[in-house]
Amino acid sequence: MHIKLFKSTFLGFLFILFTSLQLIQCAVLGIDFGQEYTKGSLVAPGAPFEVIMTSDSKRKDLSGITFKKAPGSGSGTFERIYGNSAAAVIQRFPATSPFYLKPLLGQSLDSPAAKWYSEQFPAVKLVPSNNNRSTIAIQIFDDIYSVEEIVAMSFSEIKGRASKVLTQALSGSSGYLKDTALSVPPYYSIQQRKALQDAVEIADLRLISLVNDGAAVAANFAASRQFENDKKEHHIIYDIGAGSTTATLVEIYQADLVPEGSPFPRSHTVIDVIGVGYDTELGGHVLTQSVRNILIDKFLEANPKVKRNDLLNDHRALARFWREAERVKFVLSANSETQSSIESAYNDISLKTHVSRVEFEDANRHLFDKVPAPILDALNNPLNNSTEAFDFSKVSSIILTGGSTRIPIVQQELLSLINARDPTEQVTLAKNVNADEAAVLGTALRGVGISKIFRSKDMAVIDRAIWDYSAEIDGEVATIFPRGTPLDSKFVLPFDSSKDDFKLVLYENGKEFVRHNINGVQSAIKRLLNDPHRECISNVSVEAEFHLSNSRIVELLGTYAKCESIEKVVSTESSQQSSTSDSADVESSSETDNASSGTTSSATTASVSPTAKPPKVVKKSVSMTNSFDGPRPMGSASKQSALSRLRALDRLDADRLSREEARNTFESRLYRVRELLESEESAQQKLAEFGEWFDYDSEKASIKVLQEKLAELNALADSYNKETTVQQIELPKETGSVVEPTMAGPEIILEPPVVQEQQPFENEKLADVYQGIKEVAEMLDQLGIDIPNREAVAQILGGSTVPDSTSNLKGIAELLRSKLQAANLDGSEPADSGDVESRLNDLRHMIKKAADIIKTESSATPSVSISTSPSPKNPQHDDL
Fold first, then answer.
1. Segment Disordered: which positions (predicted)?
2. Which pLDDT belongs to residue 593?
3. Is the dihedral of CA 215, 221, 224, 230 positive or negative?
4. Burial class (CB in 10 A: 0-12, 13-18, 19+), 813
5. 587: number of CA atoms within 13 Å, CB side?
6. What pLDDT, in 10s, does the model give residues 287-344?
């Protein structure tokens, strides 16, 4: 009876496990990585579609990290403080606080972006990256970290917070999260986009796509609205961020489209990007820089003995002035004047002054005059191959997004543009999206739409290339993706098949970004012509295939020699009798009109069978190598090394946090025992020793030592028959563990907590499987069946491989049921110990099979209803 109970429970567990994991695999993380602030959002069945809160319960986080020497640690050990939590310490540690790194991605050390960054944040030491990639790295104490690695740390931290949200939403499930979509300015080059792509991979995330900011905001705007079938609406998404200003002209309408894989049309909301304008010199940080200059001028005027160069060379002072300038700029968005004060701004001299909005506007008049320019560029240079400018009066609204659109003079400049260009006053200045969060929510929606991980609102977004992409072959240039080409397009470029080698150079907007050396064309042609199984029936051609991805990255998919060919079949006299039975393997070709069904040739020489299969195109690859003239992306080995280093830092952070929690536990217990033994004079000396040890030695103590000390402290209280509560301190995983501590989810172990020499799994999808293993082990214990080494069962999971193909869940359930029966777990008692071991082996194989299934990406795409109602109004919006 117990065996039957075990059998039914185990199969029920597998069914629930596989069903729930289909939902867990559907989560999409949206990231809006801004120059000043970073936001994250999560879309998953059963989880609220909302912005992910930061560690300090805010809706956005400063973009950066402070590296700080860990208290009591040796050299080379530091802790990382992320985002808002680091705001208070940036001015104390400016050299190890690399914030606002977005403009440095995909740039060389001699670029204008690097020069500007060094001028504004001179404490941060920029150095060349490793492996001669012509990109930028940052020196942190004695180590060098590429910009991509530091950005990846922020992405990993967001991933950890999102995993906790997912775990809570799915009632304690593993919170596994892998897929992400990332917003990006529309003017970003391929080098910058690839740098972001590398950062995502280093964070151990899988990039669905980069999403242009304007398209993301448009998706968020359209998601909660209905549009008429016969009416096209036109809106301009106007975004002033910290680093730039962009204007995206979109056309939105309703249309019946046939989804991929469906024979029937469905009504879709269509968003067509038909114009883009931008200004990389107008942004929030340039305005902050101007306010800082105003504050510095006022400080120097009040303190004439202070020399400007001395102040500008004081990195901590500059950090203090920058932080105050950010605050002043924000306050002036709602007030005409504000008081400014910086305690000990420089050399213990404080700043107390006031700044007016008029001063701010006068200092930036040259910038505010450029506010309308991106809109005019989007209107005058449409992406739909029209030679005429788009009629401004057809625009329904200018939708404001980005923090700096709150500045009153920006809105005044836009209203002036509307009044000058639209006398009918039909164009409105709209504030109908959340200026801070529309991009991150829209990015997550686009991630769902592109990946089709699950169904959401039917929406088709047509984003386009804003530049020409061309290819040069031996001096001849051909445009492969003209300006305005929809993303996710392919192009085939033919080569001269008489040549053996080519030099292929790819250009973006006239600037080279990669060079391909193609070799061995004639060798590929020979392999094609000498194929023993197929024969070409058309001329051999050589061509290169290119892809313009949804991330707007142009890549050479491959270079091929190809022809249309048919299968060669050998016919002999001896095969006459078997030809009929083998005919199922040889399909009739429609090209062979004179073929006679059921007849064979008596010739003994090889020939093309008259019953050959229909022709098909066969390709043979041509080898090629890449080279880069400027910044180049990270190689796979470099990314793997960076990922390993990031995991090691995560483990150190987890260990440090565990030690801090252990110290706090010991400290609180020490205070309690002191209260309990206050009247016991004989215990005071021992308590003083505990206190002295805590003050001077506990910071460097391991968790094991802290646990021993806690046990001694509790034993002291017990010896006086006083109240005691033994608080067990969980030992952290050793540094060799491959588990990522930033990932949330229940830790399932097979034995009581101990320091494990090897963590048996890496993929957090397997957390539920571990729970199942634990339950199975308990059932076996009840049946009197012993597992000599339960960790070995778990290690089978960690070593399992990912199948190439997806699996049918129903078929897998039947397979497991048959294996369960084959293992003789159907109610009969085990005959001997060998039979028991055989059953356990079968059980291990079953668990391994379950792990393989879980690691396999399911082809099923469950539907989920996403609430796209506007987010609660941010109090900051009242300033508008």
1. 571-642, 854-880
2. 36
3. negative
4. middle
5. 9
6. 999 999 999 999 999 999 999 999 999 999 999 999 999 999 999 999 999 999 999 9
Boundaries of every domain in the chain: 1-18+750-880, 26-204, 209-282+370-457, 284-368, 469-571+604-634, 635-745
Planar angle of CA 726, 728, 734, nearest 5 degrees: 160
| Common-topology check for domains 26-204 and 209-282+370-457 | yes
Distance CA 836, CA 787 (A): 10
Q: Residue 108 in contact with residue 248, Cβ under 8 Å?
A: no
CATH of 209-282+370-457, one of 3.40.50.720, 3.30.420.40, 3.40.50.1100, 3.10.20.740: 3.30.420.40
pLDDT in tens, 466-520: 999 999 998 899 999 999 999 999 999 998 888 899 899 999 999 999 999 999 9
The single-letter code of the amino acid at 218 is A
- The whole model's pTM is what? 0.75
Helix 636-676 vs helix 703-719: crossing angle, to nearest 10: 10
Rounded Cα gap, residues 15 and 663, in angstroms = 43
Query: Which phi and psi angles does 105 have, rounded to 5°?
Result: -65, 130
Round to whole Å and give the CA distance between 775 and 759.
Answer: 19
**Best CA proximity match to 439, nearest among 143, 162, 211, 207:** 211
Q: What is the pLDDT of residue 808?
A: 38
CA distances from 63 to 39, 499, 683, 731 (A): 9, 51, 51, 32
Q: Which pLDDT score is estimated for 338?
A: 95
Count CB atoms within 10 A of the CB of residue 271. 25
To the question of domain 26-204 being in CATH 3.30.420.40, the answer is yes
How distant, in Å, are the alpha carbons of 186, 276, 491 from that of 464? 10, 9, 15
- Three-class HEC string of 308-334: HHHHHCCHHHHHHHHHHHHHHHHHHCC
CA 824, 828, 829, 832 torsion-angle sign: negative
Q: Reduced to 3 states, what is the DSSP secondary structure of residue 618?
A: strand
CATH 3.90.640.10 fits 284-368, yes or no: yes
**Closest residue by Cα to residue 561 from 591, 519, 533:** 519
Domain 469-571+604-634's class?
Answer: mainly beta
Measured between alpha carbons, how far is 486 from 125 in angstroms, rounded to an integer?
Answer: 40
Strands 623-627 and 511-519 turn out to be antiparallel
Q: Helix, strand or coil for residue 385? A: coil
Closest CA relative to residue 359, chosen from 332, 341, 327, 331:
332
The arrangement of strands across the sheet holding 233-240 comes to 428-430, 397-401, 233-240, 245-257, 266-279, 459-462
Instruction: Give the three-state DSSP class for 691.
Output: helix
Question: CA nearest 514: which of 505, 503, 522, 523?
Answer: 505
Across 779-879, the runs of DSSP E, i.e. the strands, are none
C-alpha closest to that of 513 among 635, 623, 627: 627
What stretch of H or E contains 204? none
Sign for the pseudo-dihedral over CA of 188, 194, 200, 203: negative
